[in-house]
Amino acid sequence: MSRLGQRGYSGYLRPISYAIDLSIINCVAYFYLLEDKASLINGNAILIFSAFISLGWLLLSVYSKFYEVYRYTRPVDIFSLVVKQSILFLLYTFAFSGLYHELDVYPRPIVKYTLFCFFLISVFKFAIYYLLQKYRASFGGNYRYTVILGLNEKTVALEDFFNSNPEYGYLHKKTYNFKNHESSLSQCFDFILNERIDEIYCSISELSNSQIADIVDFADNNLKILKFIPDSKEIYSKRLQYEYYDYIPILTLRTIPLEDSVNTFIKRGFDILFSSLVIVFILSWLTPIIAILIKLESKGPVFFKQSRNGFNYKEFDCYKFRSMMPNEEAHLYQVTRDDSRITRVGKFLRKTSIDELPQFFNVLFGDMSVVGPRPHMVSHTHMYAKKIDKFMVRHFVKPGITGLAQVSGFRGEVESDKDIIGRVKFDIFYIENWSLLLDMKIVVQTFLNAIKGEDKAY
Predict the structure, then answer these.
(1) pTM of this prediction?
(2) Cβ atoms of 18 and 66 closer than 8 Å
(3) Which of 129, 210, 326, 364 could, after both became Cys, cross-link 275 (CB 3.0–4.6 A)?
């Protein structure tokens, strides 16, 4: 089979996906919403409804980038796209039915209709995704040849990724080492042309500016896909965005999904729903019990209030169940292992993370989120901001009760700079890769960790 035969159909996948999804939303609409009314309403009304939901689906898919799914796209990101598109489509259908009364369609059937479409489209989208992975891994089809220019730790890791994951459809042919002039660009270019390489990956740290310019010209002139591997050791998860201001190209260093108004609405809705459930069904009966236990052991308030930095560096009062004897150092020094300030009840509360539950009121008030970077004491925030690179990036979003860093082994006391650097690394990854499904995964992992117990939960 020729390489064109193996890879040529890829360009048809997106149009086919459009056609199938439009067929689903229209067929389900007719048989679920309109079939029993077809004899009662004007045929033009059905055509108008079909035209509007089809147009709306296409416009929303462009906005949500619903069909921008590639061989390297993660399943969690695909599911996030489906959820986002379905919510937008539900709101769009609600709005249209409210304006177009001739159809006499009520909200409950519309919700059921959207959920059924969501289910069918999800099945189709994941079926295509996994069938293509199976096809690449088992039959070697739909693949792309790759070369890597530059040899270092990162390029070795990329080569291992290509070789260890055949389901993504990359066949790595060669990695060139430019140290000590072991390879030349002319040799690389000849190899790329002779082997019909599809994608070129360049390590910026291994190439000079003139070499990069030559590679760019070669790729442009020979229709090769060119991608760059960042050279900074401090770069954590840069998702660079390329934009134009008039005719001036601008490269955005960091994209934040939660700057999107739709994502902000979804996350805030999740926060309100989740925090309300915890407050009504857990804190409503647990708080009096905890309050009695705290009061029986020591004098002082039931709740502990502490100023912390949140979104945009704004200070807010963070609430917890009091787990220590009242002391003036509580706002200055973190709790350490076997800290004498911790009460017996407090030790249990901290071990099980129950002391954090009052922060769901902070979530409901809008100062915090269920998931996000953990807020630090104001004094510690000032200190880390001066000594830890990129620490302030954490304040681009609301702080959370739990976070990716906490479920990845970086909760509790900061014993060394390594701890806070690791925490910042995971926090930045979370900020740049947020999705509702990621939030749910972190919540579940937090619950499991609380049950199992953690070494740094003291």
Answers:
(1) 0.60
(2) no
(3) 364
